[in-house]
Design brief:
The complex is a heterodimer. In chain A, helix 1 crosses helix 3, helix 1 crosses helix 5 and helix 6 packs across helix 7. Chain A is elongated. In chain A, about 75% of the residues lie in helices and about 0% in strands. Chain B is an alpha+beta fold. Chain B contains four helices and 18 strands. In chain B, the strands form three sheets. In chain B, strands 2, 3, 4, 5, 6, 7, 8, 9, 10, 11, 12, 13 and 14 form a 13-stranded mixed beta sheet that branches. Chain B has a two-stranded antiparallel sheet with strand order 15-17. In chain B, strand 11 and strand 12 form a beta hairpin. In chain B, about 25% of the residues are buried. About 5% of the residues of chain B have low confidence. Classes of the chains: A mainly alpha, B alpha+beta. At the A-B interface, helix 1, helix 2, strand 1 and helix 4 of A face strand 1 and helix 1 of B.
Chain lengths: ~160, ~280
């Protein structure tokens, strides 16, 4: 059973993460936003039967399920190239530096696109949200060992894509 | 080439923050749902009450089944009293009256149903005396005896029932017919018919209760049957004794061999004890 107060607290704590999680999987901003709201709607509808103890991993499970449904309808590949950007001030950098940034961003997007979904979500949760392996493991309801394994796989792809000419 | 530094990110800039989304979509939803929540709360209470009720019902029905089982078992409980061969035995019935059992006799009754049916089943010979409950009945294979406050002797062997009323009044019934006996009357059933006759010597009937066995013109076969029973022995019965009748009296303290000796003398036949 989840009451209004705990639902609100849960929303505030996890909405951003769930939205990101979906985004890591589908690489679509709008889709991620809509779907994240659907996740919380689903939880609210089932509030009487949900045990607040394991709600964290439940949110991720619902989200993953919705993504599976989404891919069943459309088989577009996740493409991060339009989203990767640099959030530092580009004004001070020289045109040469800007060109270098551009190439790095392209390579990063390419690396993300090449990763299997499981590796990517773990890698991005770690890099973009600075979550610990333990925290990632809890949210996805997998072991820390599994997180480490996916991370090493992801880093291998990153190194490969970033360093090769 | 630049290293992948912390400024480079794949996370897009969201159009709306989590807070805005909450306010736009979820705040209203959660508030609208308040009544709903209350209803659900009530529902749960109702469910709980229903669960509690079904639990109570369950417990009550289990208890009821046990009570019924126990009372049926108790009601069906049958007390059986029997006297071994060679001895008599006095027992008291729930109404305070007494039943004296002749050798080899057994009676049984249901103590807990006594109030509803004061009924004794009997095999053998017994002497019932004292104040009996209304409707006191002795059941035998060959007929029933209803006591109307009295003393009486019942003798039921093979297919012959013989009832002697010593005091008061009794009714003997065997499905087909019934007779009322008053003091010093005896009823015998044979082949389903009830015959009544008067007797004068009470001792002949109830003597066995005092250790005196009297035979008044009884068929010899029956006399020997009683001797076997009273003394707890076996007698080798010769053939062709159907026509012989015997009259005599013995006491319990006599030796069975002497008893046989006396009977033999009368007819000039040989009777032996089987060991």
């Amino acid at each position: 059973m989840i009451d209004r107060t705990s639902f609100r607290a849960m929303f505030e704590e996890y909405y951003d993460s769930i939205r990101l999680y979906i985004y890591y999987k589908v690489a679509e901003k709008e889709v991620a936003d809509d779907m994240a709201q659907d996740v919380f709607m689903a939880v609210w509808e089932k509030k009487t039967t949900i045990n607040p103890q394991n709600v964290k991993s439940l949110l991720y499970k619902i989200a993953a399920g919705l993504v599976v449904d989404y891919y069943r309808k459309s088989d577009v590949r996740a493409d991060f190239s339009k989203w990767v950007h640099c959030n530092s001030d580009g004004n001070e950098s020289s045109p040469h530096e800007q060109a270098e940034y551009k190439e790095t961003m392209e390579r990063y997007a390419n690396a993300l696109n090449c990763m299997p979904e499981g590796q990517r979500e773990v890698f991005m949760m770690s890099r973009e949200e600075q979550l610990t392996y333990k925290e990632i493991a809890q949210r996805l309801d997998i072991s820390v060992k599994a997180v480490e394994k996916r991370m090493s796989g992801a880093l291998k792809i990153v190194n490969e894509k970033m360093l090769t000419l | 080439m630049k290293k992948l530094d912390k400024h480079i990110t794949a996370v897009p800039e969201w159009d709306k923050s989590a807070k805005q989304i909450w306010n736009e979509r979820f705040e209203a939803l959660v508030t609208d749902d308040t009544d709903d929540t209350d209803v659900i709360g009530e529902d749960t209470d109702v469910t709980k009450t229903v669960q509690l009720w079904s639990r109570i019902k369950y417990i009550v029905s289990v208890a009821a089944v046990f009570i019924i089982l126990i009372s049926v078992t108790a009601a069906l409980y049958k007390k059986e009293i029997s006297a071994q061969l060679g001895q008599t035995r006095i027992t008291h019935l729930p109404d305070g009256s007494s039943a004296e059992l002749s050798a080899g006799t057994s009676i049984s009754y249901r103590p807990l149903l006594w109030m509803f049916s004061p009924c004794v089943e009997m095999k053998g010979e017994a002497y019932f005396s004292g104040r009996h409950t209304t409707d006191f009945t002795v059941k035998t294979d060959n007929g029933d005896i209803m006591a109307l406050g009295t003393s009486f002797n019942v003798r039921n062997y093979h297919d012959k029932l013989s009832v002697a009323c010593i005091e008061g009044k009794i009714r003997v019934a065997n499905g087909k017919s019934s007779v009322i006996l008053t003091a010093n009357m005896q009823a015998t059933t044979e082949n389903g018919l009830i015959k009544t006759q008067h007797f004068t010597e009470t001792e002949d009937i109830t003597g066995w209760t005092k250790g005196v066995f009297s035979f008044n013109n009884e068929p010899l076969g029956e006399v020997l049957f009683d001797v076997e029973r009273y003394y707890g022995v076996k007698v080798s019965t010769p053939e062709n004794i159907d026509t012989l009748r015997y009259t005599g009296r013995f006491t319990r303290d006599k030796h069975p061999e002497d008893v046989l000796q006396i009977i033999c003398q009368t007819y000039g036949i040989t009777l032996k004890l089987i060991r």
